């Protein structure tokens, strides 16, 4: 459901004219009881207003879900079950061998160290429960059977690691040992590259972004021929995620879905604070190269992009920062995690990226309303 606000009133599915006059552009997706996706671009909107807009959108979602359920009852089609579940005995065997060992690894600092220890546990349990076939004269069927069992063990191991990680978080232990509201150490530097208009490096824990800014004339604007009328774009943020940032080796090709989405996300966070065309007529391009990644690299791009803009002398209206908040929930018990890691993103229930400017004062109900918006 798309929501705008015109003259202080929320509007469901605004027209193009209403969207142009709106304070923000909010898209919400959800189920009958929960919100599970939020995307919004705004010109500095209060948290209370945004929470009200999300609740307003969810009421419309509930109506649509009711119509879908009505159609479902009329059709009467049964859901297709999963017929490829692993053997329960194998699940219990893997769980009994690795659960406590994985639990001992969680809570220790260092992404690489945790990853190496978990991988060693996986290799150990595979070697014990499904050792590779070394007999050259063994029948081919035995090779196939062993490979299938190893694949099942990897799947079960992943489920056990997820369960153990979530249990640890709900018990108060994050994978790197931080508290729920703790932010990893932040290091910033500007002017790191001598031959560009502006540059900055932003590091938050094991996530690091190097941002560069290039200024151009009106002839450097990007012409966009999209669904609407053709228009020119004077501000662009492009995001690169090379494989070495996560310790992998793979071919470097063109941007994929992830790179395009993260670049658009960080771009949306900065476009609202750019100076007016009359005050600063230049075309601006930011490139964010992720040098190391362990969660929230798009938010590092927002922070680093803001620093690089200032280093380039772009008179932005306000400074922008971004951070990612996670959620782990089992039943009625849940925890919100500030500045999430890659593990918490992978095993958690939510990756909620939020960018904004500093406010003179927060609304009195900010804390409670923020939790309510997550748990709608």
Assign the CATH architecture of the largest domain. Answer: 2-Layer Sandwich
Mean pLDDT: 90
Largest sheet, described in full?
Answer: 5 strands, mixed
Radius of gyration: 24 Å
Please indicate the count of domains: 3
Shape: globular
Ends: how far apart?
15 Å
The CATH topology of the largest domain is Ribosomal Protein S5, domain 2
Give the proportion of residues in helices: 25-40%
Q: Which H/E pattern describes the elements?
A: EEHEEHHHHEEEEEEHEHEEHEH
Low-confidence stretches: 360-376
Tell me the strand order in the biggest sheet: 5-6-7-11-10
β content, as a range? 15-25%
CATH class membership of the largest domain:
Alpha Beta
Structure class: alpha+beta
Q: Strand tally, please? A: 14
The CATH homologous superfamily of the largest domain corresponds to GHMP Kinase, N-terminal domain
Number of helical runs? 9
What are the key terms here?
single chain, 376 residues, alpha+beta, Ribosomal Protein S5, domain 2, 3 domains, five-stranded mixed beta sheet, 9 helices, 39% helix, disordered C terminus
Q: How would you summarize what this structure contains?
A:
It is built from nine helices and 14 strands. The chain is of the alpha+beta class.
SSE arrangement:
Layout (H helix, E strand, L loop, with lengths): L1 E5 L2 E4 L3 H6 L2 E7 L4 E8 L4 H29 L12 H18 L5 H19 L10 H31 L15 E5 L7 E7 L2 E10 L5 E3 L6 E3 L1 E6 L16 H15 L11 E10 L4 H15 L9 E10 L2 E6 L3 H6 L2 E7 L9 H9 L2
Parallel strand pairs: 10-11
Antiparallel strand pairs: 1-2, 1-3, 3-4, 5-6, 6-7, 7-11, 8-9, 12-13, 12-14
């Amino acid at each position: 459901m798309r929501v705008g606000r015109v003259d202080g009133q929320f509007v469901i599915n605004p027209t193009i004219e209403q969207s142009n006059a709106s304070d923000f552009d909010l898209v919400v997706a959800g189920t009958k009881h929960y919100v599970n996706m939020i995307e919004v671009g705004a010109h500095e909107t209060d948290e209370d207003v945004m929470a009200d807009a999300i609740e307003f959108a969810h009421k419309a979602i509930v109506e649509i879900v009711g119509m879908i359920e009505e159609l479902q009852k009329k059709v009467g089609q049964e859901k297709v079950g999963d017929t490829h579940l692993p053997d329960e005995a194998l699940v219990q065997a893997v769980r009994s061998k690795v659960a406590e060992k994985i639990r001992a690894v969680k809570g220790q600092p260092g992404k690489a160290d945790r990853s190496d220890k978990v991988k060693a546990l996986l290799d150990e349990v595979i070697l014990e429960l499904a050792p590779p076939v070394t007999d050259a004269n063994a029948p081919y069927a035995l090779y196939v059977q062993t490979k299938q069992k190893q694949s099942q063990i990897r799947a079960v191991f992943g489920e056990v690691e997820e369960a153990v990680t979530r249990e640890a978080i709900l018990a108060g232990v994050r994978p790197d040992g931080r508290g729920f509201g703790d932010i990893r150490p932040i290091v910033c530097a500007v002017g790191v590259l001598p031959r560009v208009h502006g540059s900055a490096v932003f590091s938050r824990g094991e996530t690091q972004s190097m941002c560069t800014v290039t200024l151009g004339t009106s002839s450097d604007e990007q012409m966009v021929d999209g669904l609407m009328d053709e228009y020119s774009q004077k501000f662009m943020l492009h995001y690169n995620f090379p494989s070495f940032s996560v310790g992998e080796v793979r071919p470097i090709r063109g941007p994929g879905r992830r790179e395009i989405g993260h670049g658009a996300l960080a771009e949306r966070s900065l476009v609202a604070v750019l100076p007016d065309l009359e005050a600063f007529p230049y075309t601006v391009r930011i490139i964010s190269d992720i040098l190391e990644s362990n969660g929230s690299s798009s938010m590092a791009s927002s922070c680093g992009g803001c620093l690089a803009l200032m280093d380039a002398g772009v008179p932005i209206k306000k400074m922008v920062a971004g951070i990612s908040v996670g959620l782990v929930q089992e039943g009625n018990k849940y925890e919100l995690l500030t500045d999430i890691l890659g593990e918490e993103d992978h095993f958690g229930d939510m990756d909620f990226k939020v960018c904004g400017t500093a406010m003179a004062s927060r609304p009195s109900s900010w804390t409670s309303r923020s939790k309510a918006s997550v748990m709608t």
